[in-house]
Specification:
The complex is a heterodimer of chains A (202) and B (151). Chain A contains 5 helices and 6 strands, in the order H-E-E-E-E-H-E-H-H-H-E. Chain A has 202 residues and is of the alpha/beta class. Chain A has one domain. The longest helix of chain A has 27 residues. The model of chain A has no long low-confidence stretch (mean pLDDT 78). Chain B is an alpha/beta fold. Chain B contains 3 helices and 8 strands; from the N terminus they run H-E-E-E-E-E-H-E-H-E-E. In chain B, the strands form 2 sheets. A 5-stranded mixed beta sheet of chain B has the order 5-4-3-6-7. In chain B, a hairpin with an 8-residue loop joins strand 3 and strand 4. The model of chain B has no long low-confidence stretch (mean pLDDT 79). Classes of the chains: A alpha/beta (202), B alpha/beta (151). At the A-B interface, helix 1, strand 1 and helix 3 of A face helix 1, strand 2, strand 3, strand 6 and helix 3 of B. Strand 1 of chain A pairs antiparallel with strand 2 of chain B.
């Protein structure tokens, strides 16, 4: 006689599906990695050299122990304004740059003769107090870094049709010399020159 | 004749044979995505500042982490520095870096980075002292730890 109960669903392949999902997650999950704002300390030298810098090529940012920010010694600003100030300063291009590069033809700034001559001359000087909080300190570093990133992205878009960040990301998989040269070229157009002044004693 | 009468109306029981697989899958997933802390914190876990431009480290063994934060003892004021598993002083930094250097190949040493994991309320003065020590021993690559800001 024919007993017709519905056949049990075959669960044999379930394990395969589970493993497939497991492998997918294994590949797709990135483990949390530490990250930070990378900076380089200046080399230690015994010889004190006085390098003459034009005052207009230096953007002074000072933070006091109450985390108030002062730009160029007279302008009190908020942390959110720093990026724009740095951007205007770096991208000013009012004169002739170092290393015989002549005028900055990729700058889109105001060409103000009172501000920086060329991005490769523009120095951002950060002065902090010993009592300044680390949060505010990193905030300024981040804002200045963001200004550089924006400028580099812009010039990279014009030259290579790709943002600087995309180029750097590509470098993880593509180790070709061509790409390396491209990144270096962009970095040379807008070199990050940030100088940290030894914090003041109270 | 009885062909139709005998047909049962109940649904077949759902197979639970795959349940262990699913449970194992979840287990593996959590095992993988959880990062274990390598060092036990002896200070209050530092609250890292937020930042946009963060560079992730690709080679973890090239990073030496310096923790700066508040002491677990609430009465104790000022910043506390932790290296490895110990509370340290600023003067211990150089030894710590030399120790880490010994674990590496000679050609890797210039790529070593010191990561400051400092609380947002930590003082710049403490970090400046450490930086001065790092400069003395030519450990020039540093990084200020921050967490990414989502916007």
């Amino acid at each position: 006689m024919a007993r017709r109960t519905a056949p049990e669903i075959n669960a044999g392949s379930m394990a395969d599906i589970a493993f497939l999902l497991l492998i997918f997650f294994l590949v797709a999950t990135t483990m949390e990695v530490d990250g930070g704002i990378a900076r380089k300390l200046p080399q230690k030298t015994d010889v004190k050299t006085d390098i003459k810098l034009k005052e207009k090529n230096v953007l002074q940012i000072a933070i006091n122990r109450n985390d108030d920010i002062l730009v160029e010694g007279n302008q009190r600003v908020k942390i959110k304004d720093i990026k724009q100030i740095a951007l205007d300063f770096i991208d000013n291009g009012g004169g002739i740059g170092n290393k015989d590069v002549g005028k900055c033809d990729y700058c889109k700034g105001k060409k103000d003769p009172k501000s920086s001559d060329h991005p490769n001359k523009a120095i951002i000087s950060l002065k902090s107090d010993r009592g300044t909080s680390y949060g505010a300190f990193v905030g300024i570093h981040d804002a200045v870094g963001a200004a550089y990133t924006e400028l580099r992205n812009r010039v990279s878009m014009e030259k290579y049709g790709k943002s600087f960040q995309a180029l750097e990301k590509q470098q993880k998989s593509d180790k070709s010399q061509k790409l390396k040269d491209k990144i270096k070229a962009i970095k040379d157009l807008y070199p990050e020159i940030i100088s940290e002044v030894e914090p003041t004693e109270n | 004749m009885s062909k139709f009468k005998k047909q049962k109306k109940e649904l077949p029981p759902i197979s639970t044979a795959s349940l262990p697989d699913i449970v194992f899958m979840l287990l593996f997933f959590f095992m993988v995505s959880t990062t274990m802390r390598e060092t036990e914190l002896m200070i209050k876990p530092p609250q890292l500042p937020q930042a946009h431009a963060i560079k992730k480290f690709e080679h973890k063994n090239l990073v030496s982490t310096v923790y700066i934060g508040k002491s677990l003892n609430p009465n104790k004021k000022g910043d506390v520095i932790q290296l490895n598993d110990k509370i340290a002083r600023v003067s211990d930094i150089q030894g710590f870096i030399f120790n880490n250097r010994e674990k590496l190949q000679e050609e890797e040493i210039p790529f070593m980075t010191t990561l400051f994991k400092a609380d947002i309320d930590a003082k710049v003065g403490t970090i400046a002292d450490i930086k001065r020590n790092l400069r003395d021993i030519d450990a020039l690559k540093i990084s200020y730890a921050a967490v990414g800001r989502n916007e």
